[in-house]
Amino acid sequence: MSFSGNGNATIRCKYCSACLTVIPGERAIQCAQCNCVTRIRRADRIPVARPAHVPAAFQRARGKKRAVLIGITYAGMRRGCGELRGPVNDVKCMRNLLCQRFGFPSECIIMLTDDQKDPFRLPTKDNIRMAMQWLVQGCSNGDSLVFHFSGLGAQVADEDCDELDAYDEAICPLDLFQKGPILDDEINETIVRPLVHGAKLHAVVDACHSATVLDLPFLSQHVSGPELLAAMGGSPSPTPEACAMVGAMTHSFIKAVECEPQGVTYGRLLTSMKAIMTNAGGCNQLQGPIGAGAPARKVANFSGVQEPNLSCSEMFDVYRKPFAL
Question: Which part of the chain is the Peptidase C14 caspase domain (predicted)?
């Protein structure tokens, strides 16, 4: 690590040697030149003072059911790759599902999308961090929490030696090139570890490399215990088509929940999601508003490469335990 004349610390991109400015508190940074992610060594990290409490902008109603929904199109950000057109609609559809089907109060849902004018509702790295803190802060027995992310995922070389595949998974915020991705280690530390006995968290992550992005110990199959922390994520897949209106993972999850009866098991839900993906999306209309009220008539690539996965904190029989929010 070196220091420039203006006092900023810099490192070299591991892949193209471009000069990257080190952001205080960050563990990784993405190069704007080659798009690759470089891990910042512990010795080179700059400490940053984090707020002890969630800022007033995130002090929303705190019912027993609350959710954070994030959708990022990366409009104008992805050099030469085009933008994703599904994530914002994914958030709208997920909000409608939670409110209409599962009784989540609308005032207990925070939505971060890159089409909003309020700077505290943009899906920047800082805002995502604050929203995650808000989600679990003061959680208690009986709480049902939902974290939904629709956007880009990434993999970063693991330096903690706690990943079997030698890579950490990550989600990409709006200011990815300035502040880097949010690693699975941080996500686990922020929204999994603070959970108390009896509080339940479900995360639906519609992004590449997202199956273990909450860093939970058990993945899919025969995945039992009264308190479940379930993360439904897609395995590595091609980037969704630019013309897609909703993401494959989000679409299949919502469609499966709508089509299956109350009390469906996790195993049956995953099977239904897989069938919807395999059959090119199945019924292509989702309940609830999308844009100006139009139904979702196009979905991201259902080539069969993407597949729903389930990870969780405890072992259980997926074909016996009912799915419930």
Answer: 64-312
In which band, very low, low, confident or very high, does the pLDDT at 116 lie, cut at 50, 70 and 90? very high
Q: Is residue 192 part of a domain?
A: yes
- For the chain, what is the domain count? 2
Closest C-alpha among 89, 67, 72, 316 to residue 202: 67
What mean pLDDT is reported for the chain? 78
pLDDT band for position 306 (50/70/90)? Answer: low
Regarding whether 256 and 300 lie in a shared domain, the answer is yes
Residues 164-214: pLDDT tens digits? 556 788 999 999 888 889 999 899 999 999 999 999 999 999 988 666 788
Which pTM value belongs to this model? Answer: 0.76
- Both 77 and 39 in one domain: the answer is no
Residue 300 DSSP SS3? coil
Secondary structure of residue 107 in the 3-state scheme = helix
More confident call, 13 vs 296? 13
Q: What separation in angstroms does the CA of 298 have from each of 27, 202, 204, 247, 276?
A: 36, 26, 20, 9, 13
Distance CA 132, CA 54 (A): 10
**Do 36 and 60 belong to one domain?**
no
**178: domain CATH number?**
3.40.50.12660
Q: Is residue 317 part of a domain?
A: no
141 and 200, same domain (yes or no):
yes
| Domain around 149 | 50-312
Measure the N-to-C terminal CA separation of the chain; round to a whole number of Å.
46
14 falls within a domain? yes
DSSP code, position 243: T
Measuring CA to CA, which residue among 31, 41, 38, 76 is closest to residue 177? 31
Kindly state the tokens that stand for 115: 């089409």
